[in-house]
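User: Can you model how iron/sulfur cluster sits in this protein?
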Amino acid sequence: MKKIPAFRKALLEWYDKHKRELPWRGVSDPYAIWISEIMLQQTRVAAVIPYYERFLAAFPDFRALAQAPEEAVLHLWAGLGYYSRARNLQKAARQMVEMGEFPGGYEAIRGLAGIGDYTAAAVASIAFGLPHAVLDGNVMRVLARVGNDASDIANGQTRKRLQGLAQEMLDRSRPGEFNQAVMELGATVCLPKQPLCAQCPVVAYCQARTAGRERELPVKGRRNNTVKVERTLLLIWKGEDVLAWKRGEESSQLRGFWELPEPEHLAGAQVVHSVGEFRHSITNHQFLFHVAEARILRKPKGFYYVSPSHEGDTPLSTTTRKALACSKKWRKSFPGS
Ligand code: SF4
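Assistant: Here's the modeled complex, given as structure tokens:
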């Protein structure tokens, strides 16, 4: 406890000197900070940067986002995955239009669609300088190592305790930067498998390092419940257009996105040849998709020919885009087919 002020100082000095230059760093607009935080959930920084820039260019503020057609929002999100994030962004933007502003308090931010404890704390601290500590995977790893804490971080009680500890450690004079500094340390130095302790600004305060246990921590309850599934997607062309169906309002995932048919959708489809396969993971499901070109005699109800080159009007699911990429590659290998 006595060492907390020195820990904060060492960490913030390191952050001021070594932080990565990222497009959302140094930004004070809560809208832009919020967009970056939502995009960064479950997605790598390098992958987020072009999406962030395109999204802000298209929707520079919450009013523009609130007014945009959902398909335009999904189109700019296509490839980032977890599409409920994009829908919730738009819902929250509409809530802000009703409020007349981007809310400036933690509770009001926490009340917006798609915002949990982490995002509310991140936006409140970074955009508004409010003293709320963030707790994500990077922060938990740093805290578990600094405290040489072998509790299971998958456990709710452990998380609650670590949230309390993060709050205690927070530098209340620079809460946004302190939060970002802990996350930056976890992302660039206190790495999961190979922590770079020799470069660590807080090595003097790290009890796991002193005990030689840094690589054993944090402890996370392991579940090996991966489900492997094989499926086939059919490409049925009519000129440059491909047969697809649109996920409707009732769909719990990927609502509004266009999908390719599978053999069970089209009983009479005749497979002409295979064009490849690809893997795709969703939560604990690992899919192996076989992609084949096929023919049908008659277009069934509920299916439409859509143009893959007009994706702005017809957002394609990631698996559809991957299947189309297989077809493109196949055509390059067998020109004139
Ligand atoms: S000394 Fe090593 S284990 Fe400890 S916080 Fe720094 S990088 Fe992580």
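A couple of observations from the model: The mean pLDDT is 92. The pocket of iron/sulfur cluster is lined by residues 142, 145-146, 189-190, 195-197, 200, 202-203, 206, 208-209, 214 (CB under 6 Å).
User: Helpful, thanks.
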